[in-house]
Specification:
By secondary structure, this protein is α/β, with parallel strands linked by helices. The protein has 15 helices and twelve strands. InterPro entries: Bact_transf (IPR003362), EPS_sugar_tfrase (IPR017475).
Length: 508
């Protein structure tokens, strides 16, 4: 009966390091597990590309630090000699970066954590230079603290980004990937496989899987989405010890208990493989997750999302300052766009639309007009051709868009007037997409959590496909932002927005 509800898989050849003939029969299992535990396994060593990439990162950081300090010392020494200040700054940077895990292989190449550790390293370096100046009575270190160290950081962040792009392009071609063993239910393993393939930049490639508990029944090994199923969950440690995997990804299955996970962790000691357990209760990540020990038990603490406090004040200040600066810099472009729209059909330049902001409060959002003046009336005749997801109305070839409007939409220039909404405090530079009132009327309870924060000029939805996203994907990304917001994530999104806009990606 149990076998009848399991999905069927087609048989495929596993990777060359997998020995399917080694799957034990029930009578042999205890004996072979004891033998495997007693036999030393080949340790999964870092691949050559990992060492090379880390060497490039460290080398570029060292080169940039020495170059900036050499130039700074040359400029400053024209006033007074500061050789010891230069040496002290070099020492502070080279101590702070590794101490802040900025060179740790675990953070290189993916996520905002790499930039957080890099920023933390430079802040620590600046503090060390300042303390060194006070300790040795060199009070003229201000220029090194407030100019030289920030200058190093301003060069280091872009070079890290460029190195990461090189790595991501290689991963998109199937190179520089970590071999992963996935273990869990067929459904959750399939989901993990799909995610690793759609987001190759993460650097994982699922090469084998273990599923089901077996319950004493033999079954042929098959595959899940092209990945070979090499055995059952109770045999996982045996295959890990023999396979040379770098990551063992544990996905949801009723088989996993705290005792079994602890035993698996013990069995994997010395293999060089990292055990990663996917959270099954909620999709929460980032600074809200902490592991602590209480009463001798490891507990995963999930702190409540904070919508007020010091970090939000900083975000508010950056929003107002950033929008004012961008409006000033872009004012000539805004004038040119306004003239082009007016000359196109003599209609109004600005399109005003009611949108829903934080806590469900409505506000008037400003955009450059990209459609004909009677676009709302024409829309009623186009409902049958709607290509949008959920309650959204979208058409890739919308006949209401003007010639000038098509160009503005391609590069998101029509959204620039929203900087005035940011300046007035109704929107943020980064946040969930500002919804229409009729959209929010159809929101499920979970989707309404988007309204806990200010809507953004850009967001995760903007850098993840824009109009090409499904409604469910758009909601998931907005909720992820609400739950896991951080200043580092905002900076990453702003940079990715610039790339997406310049490429016209997903815009129509």
């Amino acid at each position: 009966m149990e076998e009848s509800v399991r999905p069927s898989y087609t048989v495929s050849q596993p990777p060359p390091h997998i020995d399917l003939q080694a799957i034990p029969r029930p009578a042999q299992r205890d004996e072979q597990q004891a033998e495997a535990a007693a036999t030393p396994s080949p340790k999964a060593l870092p691949a050559a590309w990992e060492a090379r990439y880390r060497a490039w990162v460290i080398g570029s950081d060292v080169f940039i630090t020495l170059l900036v300090i050499a130039v700074s010392a040359f400029v400053i020494d024209r006033v007074a000699p500061h050789d010891m200040h230069a040496f002290g700054t070099i020492l502070a940077v080279f101590v702070s970066l590794p101490a802040s895990r900025a060179w740790s292989p675990r953070v290189l190449g993916e996520g905002a954590e790499e930039y957080r550790t890099l920023g933390r390293g430079f802040i620590t370096a600046a503090v060390l230079v300042a303390l060194g100046g006070l300790l040795f009575g060199a009070l003229e270190v201000q220029v090194w603290v407030f100019v030289v160290v920030p200058a190093i950081a301003l060069v280091a962040f872009p070079q890290r980004y460029l190195l990461r792009q090189v790595l991501h392009r290689k991963r998109a071609r199937g190179l520089c990937l970590l071999p992963v063993m996935a273990a869990g239910s067929p459904e959750t393993v399939a989901d993990l496989i799909a995610r690793t393939r759609s987001e190759a930049h993460v650097g994982w490639r699922v090469e084998a899987a273990c599923t089901f508990t077996g319950h004493g029944a033999d079954r042929d090994s098959g595959e899940i989405d092209g990945v070979p199923v090499v055995g059952r969950l109770e045999e996982l440690s045996r295959y890990v010890r023999r396979g040379g995997y770098r990551v063992v990804a544990i996905t949801a299955d009723q088989y996993w208990t705290p005792k079994r996970l602890q035993r698996l962790a013990w069995d994997m000691e010395g293999t060089g493989a990292e055990m990663v357990v996917a959270p099954v209760l909620m999709e929460v990540a980032g600074p809200r997750l902490n592991v602590t020990g209480v009463l001798g038990m490891p507990l995963l603490r999930v702190t409540a999302p904070r919508f007020t406090g010091g970090r939000r004040v900083v975000k508010e200040i950056l929003d107002r300052f950033g929008s004012a600066l961008l409006l000033t810099l872009l004012s000539p472009l805004l004038l040119v766009i306004a003239v082009a729209i007016k000359l196109n059909d003599r209609g109004p330049v600005i399109y005003r639309q009611r949108r829903v902001g934080r806590d469900g409060q409505t506000f008037t959002m400003l955009k450059f007009r990209t459609m004909v003046t009677n676009a709302d009336e024409i829309r009623k005749t186009l409902e049958t051709e709607n290509e949008g997801a959920g309650p959204l109305f979208k058409m890739k070839r919308d006949p209401r868009i003007t010639r000038v409007g098509g160009f503005l939409r391609r590069y998101s220039l029509d959204e620039v007037p929203q900087l005035l909404n940011v300046l007035s405090g109704k929107m943020s530079l980064v946040g969930p997409r500002p919804p229409l009132p009729e959209e929010t009327a159809q929101y499920a309870p979970d989707a309404r959590r988007r309204l806990l924060v200010k809507p953004g000029l850009t967001g995760l939805w903007q850098v993840s496909g824009r109009s090409d996203l499904t409604w469910a994907e758009s909601i998931r990304l907005d909720l992820r932002y609400v739950e896991d917001w951080s200043l580092a994530l905002d900076l990453v999104i702003l940079w990715k927005t610039f790339r997406a806009v310049m490429g016209g990606q997903g815009a129509y």
